[in-house]
Each structure stands twice: as C-alpha cells, then as structure tokens.
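Example record

Each entry pairs one chain with its bound ligand, flavin mononucleotide.
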Amino acid sequence: MNYNEVMQNAKKLVNGKCKACDVCNGLACGFTMPGPGCRPPYNTAARNFAKWQDVLLNMDNIYAKGNIDTTFTLFGREFDLPVIAAPIGAPQLHFSDKYTEELEYDLEAMQGCAESNIAGSYWVGFEEDTYIRKLEAIKAADFGGFLIPAIKPFANEKAKRYLDLCRKYNMPAVLMDIDGAGLPMFKENADDSGCKSIESLRMLREYAGIPFILKGIMTVKGAKKALEAGFDTIVVSNHGGRVLSCLPSTAEVLEEICDAVGDKMTILVDGGIRTGYDVFKALALGADGVLIARTISTAVVGGGKDGVGAYMEAIKKDLCDAMEMCGANSLAEIDRSMVRVIR
Ligand SMILES: Cc1cc2nc3c(=O)[nH]c(=O)nc-3n(C[C@H](O)[C@H](O)[C@H](O)COP(=O)(O)O)c2cc1C
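Structure tokens for the complex follow.
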C-alpha cells in the first residue's frame, strides 16, 4: 500500500468533518470542531500550513555528496526520521468512525510508529481508569517502540498521579500540552490546573523522573520560562489553532525561539508540517525534529498501521530529496543557509 492508495482509502472512510484532502491545508475543515478544524475567528491551522510555503529551499548541488542519513536521536534513542506522531484526542469523533473507540485508533497508530521506527505520542484520557486501560493495552501490545503518553496540564496533584502511572508502566517519556490550558474545563477552574507557574512546572518535571516534553510554546519568553523550570525539550506548537485563535504560525516564531534557547534545549515544532520538504525547512530554521498530527490521523484512517508506514516512506523520500539537492548528507548538516524565508 503506497501513500496515494492510503489517501484514496481515507477519502472513503473519513466522516465528512475531515475530508482527507489531497493537501491538508486547514481550509476545507475550517472551524469544524468537533472535527479537525481550528478555533474561530481566524484560521490558525491554515496559517500554519501557509507559512511553510513561504520557506523556500536554496538548491545547491556543489558539495561532497555521501550517503544521506536521516537518523534522529532523541533521549539517547535512534529513530529513522526526525518525526514524531503528535497526540490526537478523540480521533473517532474528529476524523472517522472506522474506530469505535479511541484506544483502537491509538493501538493502530502506535504500532505504525513503532514499525516505522519513529516516536509516537498518544493522549491518555481525562479519567484515570481510561488512562490505566490505555497504559495496560500499550504495555501488553509490546510494540517495542518509543511511545509517549501525553497528559494535560491537570491540577498538580492529579498530574502527579498521572506521572506516577507513567513510571509504574515504565513509559519512556511523558509529554504535557501546557496550551491545553485553553480548554474550557481548565479555564473554568481557578485552581492550579491549566496555566502553571514556573515553580509548579519545575516541581512536576522533577517529580516525573523520566524525560519530559513540554508542548505548546509560542514565544521566546515562554521558552525561557520552560528552560528556567528545568525542561530540556519543548514543542513549538499552537495546538493546530485549536486552543486560541489569532496566533502566529509556528513557522513564524520558530527561528527566534531557536536563536534564543536552541543551544540549551531540544526544540521540536508542529503545525502544518505535511511533507519531507516541510521537515527539512523546520530543521533549517533551527528545530531538531517535528511532530505531525492531522495527516498522520488520515493515514491511520486510510491504512491503519501500514498507513503510517506508507506516509513515513513518502516523508523520507522528500526529505532525502531536499537534503541531496541542498547539500546536506545528515540532519546535522541542514542549516539556515539552505532556506530562504519570504516575509
Ligand atoms: C483533532 C485533534 C485533536 C488533538 N488532540 C490533542 C491532544 O489531545 N493533546 C495534544 O497535546 N494535542 C492535541 N492536538 C494538537 C496536535 O497534537 C498538534 O499540536 C496540532 O494538531 C498541530 O499539528 P498538525 O498541523 O500536524 O495537525 C490535537 C489536534 C487535533 C487536530
């Protein structure tokens, strides 16, 4: 099954909120939520996609070409690509009813990640028993990958219980979407859920005892605070435009964040990254790796675990193409001189 076949299949299986568009640019789904859209009044998902189109490749074929190596290292582990499957909550609601429940989707997606040798992340659920069921299922499936539970910025005591479970089930790392503070359930509470102080974040990071990724950083100020709280890995992300409207795209803020803290932290980025060319652009602007959400979901809908494999093959092909044509034999050789940003 190639990626084109996966997408043809996905078109038949999506629920109409997602249309499995040939180009996932945030326009057809618009503000459809539930669905894969984003929060009105301005289409931040479309902006995310569009701004990568303003990053152009500087082709240069005069260099000593070697074997192209896309190997990516994160937390001491080697992966085939600098791509991580981003967490997606309630895919059965937003994309397709092919999967009757979230766990079925998660297992298929995570197996696809493990078999493609990329890291994957999955949302764990608001209720602790849902979370435990997921951890047990992931553990029992024994896919052998690097599969990261994604928790919300729960109140500190609940977050600690979730971190306890990560350790109990021997999870390799944990991710928290701090921008989940935009969800109504956190907004309505005046406790320590949602937005968190540097002290709370520092306490939780130390408490975790496993690698901890903080997702949802959109400013240099925020990245410096994450650093102050002791984080060494962040995701520059606006949650695909779903938690707040009127945000800049991630492509627009990535470079300044990398310039400020890139030598002290691992910086990942997501939002509108669809192809291996986009992955190349993100690395050229300073990111170490990327996360992809919506198009991995359509690949899972269209081809299950093999859909993820087919999509990753397509990404690798385009990434290698960009690397070869711009003069980089390895990810470390991709640099700022290899792209031009149209402003
Ligand atoms: C339907 C949907 C559900 C999502 N659920 C979560 C979630 O539970 N946790 C999280 O951290 N991010 C979640 N996200 C955000 C994604 O992980 C990612 O940050 C965002 O979609 C940007 O990437 P993309 O343009 O590749 O989709 C969700 C996004 C979508 C579209």
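The chain has a mean pLDDT of 97.
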